[in-house]
Amino acid sequence: MSFLAPFSLFLSLLALPILLMYMLKLRRREVQVSSTWLWHAVLRDRQANTPWQKLRRNILLFLQLLILSGLVAALARPAVAVPSVSSGSIVVLLDASASMNATDIEPNRFEAARSVVRTLINGLSGNSRMTLIQAGFQPEVLISAENDRAELLRALQAASPTNGPADWKTAFALAAGASSAEKGSQPATIVIISDGGLPKTGLPPLPGDVNYIPVGSSANNLALSALALRPSGNNLELFARIANFSDQARQVVLSIYRNGELLNAQTVEIPANDQTPISIKDLPAGDAIYKAHLEPVGTQEGSLDALSLDDTAFAVNQSHKNRRVLILSKGNFFLEQVLSALPGVSAYRALPSPDTAEGSSGGFKLPEPSSGETSSFDLYVLDGVLPTAPDSNLPVLPEGNLLLINPPPTSLFNVTGTFTDTQEIQVADHLLTQYLDWREVHIAKAHYVQLPPWAETLVSSHGNPLVFAGETQGRRVAALTFDLHDSDLPLQISFPILFANLIDYLAPVQSVNAGENTLPGESISISPGLDVQELAIASPSGTVFSLHPDENGSQFSETGELGVYAVNFVKAKSQSAEFFAVNLFSESESDIRPSETIQVGRTMISASEQAKLGKRDLWPWFALTAFSLLLLEWWVYHRRL
Amino acid sequence: MLFDEVTLRKINQLTLVAKRVRAGMIKGERRSTKRGTSIEFADYRNYTPGDDLRRLDWNVVARLDRPFIKLLEEEEDLAVHILVDLSRSMDWGEGNTNKLRYALYLAAALGSVALSSGDKLTVSTLQSGTISSQFGPSRGAQNQFHLLAFLEGLVAYGETNLNQSIKIYSLEARRPGLAFILSDLFSPAGYQEGANLLQSKGYEVSILHILAPDEVDPPLAGDLRLVDVETGRAEEISLDGGLRELYRQSLKAWQEKLHTEFRKREIRYMKLSTDTAWDKVVLYEMRKESIVK
Asked: Does A24 touch chain B (CB under 8 A)?
């Protein structure tokens, strides 16, 4: 304990006047009595217990001196050093990244950080306020500018470490905002409690005083820093990398599981602060979930390392299904060639019904609408023909996405004639016309088509659409208003590009665009098929998230857990599933070595000693004590008389 | 200082009680232990040869034909000594609670009782170790007014030395009898010796211990300098509740001690507070104590 205004202690000299007054006060009042004989006897009796009586007699003096000392002590402003910023407010940045789960200090680093924050809260002085920011992969303000300790502690209790890297830039932006939002000229003091896993460069400077309290003691960690599958020939090859961040060479057992069955286990030696790549060849092809796990060698006691999150990794091998395209054509070599050459597309050609006369407008029966995935097609390509309904001879459009080439009039749009004036061609700037070079394309004749309101013109000549696409009645439709045989488009490089674009648009790939290196907290874009009504995504722990996809697909960001997620594409009649894995492949998180300094802006900030953090004024307590003593003195005085 | 009519009449009906009757010089109104020649009948006894034939009860001889001697009461007077402590400390207390006034009332009452019952009364005042003034010895109710006049003229002054005063009083040749000592007993030199001396001379001693109420429970507090009105000696004291309680306890213990000590020596001891009406004390308390009847 120290005094902030030690010169006030000289005021304790006021004790002298009090003592003096006590001496003066003992001039006694003179009273006559009939005889002092009995009083004398009484006083003689009292000699026996003199010390206590003397104390009793002087208890008022004693109390008054105590009151004086309390007041003087209050004026001298005693203060204790507390791990706190006594004056002003604090913004606490609490690291909640995966490395804070490390158990090198009991019970783990995050709990240690939590107890530091608890001390800070308890050391918070009177009107100081605290903002608590949890820096996870989605930094979050747990509580803002609060001085109620109960509320702060409740908010602190709600904090929990995440499994992924922290987004320090966002956290810093939040902290800078919270610090500047403090009233008064002084920005709040910012306290960063972390194990030092901050990026070395690129963090913006922070306003005000920045303190850094490190947690963590050990660098003992082994990590699976990569796990990937590659096709090699007809089989699969698995590639893994094990990193050792400790200062000792380690031996570890790497076990590979395929769909939960142990496939391979080997002992790997990793030098200190180094990595060991491992590849396992000739794994069976086919869809499977691979799991790699690090275990201690033999009967080694205890856990492998301080951080267990990165000791397990998953990889998913999944082949995408081909899109099924049905071609209804009287025979178009170019079309069949381009569709069979496109990857991921299975082209089927429907044959004309034998009982229909050649050359009629129809000639193609639509298959019975039967259940089952095999009978439905993702895309129908109508090359100058219209199929008829199965039970009648009326032309009808099949249910589904359509690519119309050289179209006859349909219920979707009207065809009014042909034109040959196609020298000047405009190509609209559109996603579907990407990489398209139409300059060398010539078209002999095309149909006049009145552009329906739902469609967008992609290629046109003198305002007459040559290629257009759009969405109507729940399906995607694209049309080429000319016969491929009437142009040299099939001979140009633009032909496969245009068709690839159109097919991707008309029959989108149903997939989860998760890379092999998805970190916790990263968002995943999912492109469901058009007929997918709902996405049900099950996390590794079994929590099911439900998404309703729109035309641009869906973003899924609840990837806080490590492990394999299952994406269910729920369609009207069926459903299919895909998997993706979230792994902690992050060197900055796996390297749990606590760092003594952090770089904020251009400033290097060293670990603060807790004692330096602040002093807490204690004067109100002394003043309160003096006041209670005053009350006590009053009571004693009145009791004596 | 006059007794009112009713009180006086009541007092005059009382008689002082002596446990043992002292031999009187003259015939009085008290029965003696000696069988005497008065006209009061006491008893009969058988005649034995040699008895005075004049004292035969001839009526009984005539009726029973056996000689009986008639025994008659001997009546004699009693010497009553009233000693009033007349030191400064006795002049304490306001109005009716003044100890001296109270003592004089009691002396007057007891004296009147004695006079009206034909006893020989001596009233003496004790002051500064001497006998400062004296009334009597006198006898007869006609002296009542002289007694009252004497008492009215008394003024308290000087210190108390009960021992010496009583010693002097007892050494003077007097006829022993009842001795009443009226005092507050605030006598540093003590009073036991004097009382013992009186008793050894054959006096029957009664001590009436008179205290004012503010001596029993002093209404004092704070840091005080207590000045003794008698000696002028000062006692510095810081009075609080505890000390006052200690004083009360000490006073009580003192009175208890006096009571047991005097009881052992067959000395009557009455503690009196001046807030009790003096006539009530005489008419009821003293009767209860068998001082008067």
From this structure: no
The answer to whether the beta carbons of residues A247 and A274 sit under 8 Å apart is no
Q: For the residues B95-112, what does the mean pLDDT come to?
A: 85
Å from A631 to nearest chain B CA?
A: 20
Cβ-in-10-Å burial (0-12, 13-18, 19+) of B50 comes to exposed
Rounded (to 5) percent helix, strand, coil in chain A: 25, 35, 40
Q: Is residue B242 part of a domain?
A: yes
Respond yes or no on whether the N-terminal peptide bond of residue A161 is cis (omega within 30° of 0).
Answer: no
| CB proximity A40 to B under 8 Å | yes
* Nearest-CB residue to B186 (from A29, A35, A45): A35
pLDDT value for A354: 58
Is the same domain home to A491 and A364?
A: yes
For A184, residues 6+ apart whose C-beta sits below 8 A from its C-beta are A88
Do B184 and B265 belong to one domain? yes
pLDDT tens digits, one per residue of A78-101: 877 665 544 567 888 888 888 888
Q: What is the CATH number of the domain that holds A201?
A: 3.40.50.410
Distance from CA of B244 to the nearest CA of A (A): 9
Query: In chain B, what residues touch A641 (CB-CB under 8 Å)?
Result: 221-222, 240
Tokens of residue A241, six digits: 């990398």
Which residues of chain A lie closer than 8 angstroms to B246, CB-CB? 42, 45-46
What is the dihedral sign for C-alpha A411, A412, A414, A419?
Answer: negative
Print the domain residue range for A289: 222-317
Angle of the A109-122 helix axis to the A149-158 helix axis, nearest 10 = 170
Across the range B90-97, mean pLDDT stands at 80
| CATH at residue B245 | 3.40.50.410
Instruction: Decide if B230 contacts B160 (C-beta within 8 A).
Output: yes
Task: Tell me the pLDDT of chain A averaged across its residues.
Answer: 81
Task: Give φ, ψ of A177 to 5 degrees.
Answer: -65, -50
- Of residues A582 and B240, more confidence is placed in A582
Helices B5-12 and B99-116 meet at what angle, rounded to 10?
50
Q: Which of B278, B274, B207, B270 is nearest to B11 (CA)?
A: B278
pLDDT at position B9 is: 76
A115, A155 in Cβ contact below 8 A?
A: no
Identify residues of B whose CB sits under 8 angstroms from chain A CBs: 89, 92, 99, 184, 186, 188, 212, 215, 218, 220-231, 233-238, 240-243, 246-247, 250-251, 254
Q: Tell me which residue has tokens 């995504």.
A: A537
Going by C-alpha positions, the residue among A120, A305, A93, A90 that lies closest to residue A195 is: A93
The closest of A86, A33, A162, A197 to B251, measured between CA atoms, is A33
Q: Is A357 exposed, middle or buried (0-12, 13-18, 19+ CB in 10 A)?
A: exposed
Give which of A115, A91, A113, A92 is closest to A102, Cα–Cα.
Answer: A113
The pLDDT, as a whole number, for residue A631 is 93
Q: In the structure encoding, which two tokens stand for residue A229, read together?
A: 């599958």
Nearest to A36 among B222, B226, B238 (CB): B226
The answer to whether residue B123 scores a pLDDT higher than 50 is yes
**pLDDT > 90: percent of chain A:** 3
Bigger pLDDT: B107 vs B233: B107
Q: How far is A637 from chain B (nearest CA, A)?
A: 11
The Cα A77–Cα A79 span in angstroms is 6
pTM for the full predicted model:
0.49
pLDDT value of residue A625:
92
Based on DSSP, count helices (H) and strands (E) in chain A, helices before strands: 11, 35
User: Which residues does chain B have within 8 Å of residue A34's beta carbon, measured at their own beta carbons?
Assistant: 89, 92, 99, 184, 186, 212, 215, 228-230
Domain identity same for B178 and B55: no
Q: Is 0.85 exceeded by the ipTM?
A: no
Over range A519-523, report the average pLDDT. Answer: 83
The one-letter amino acid at A153 = L
In a domain, A482, yes or no: yes
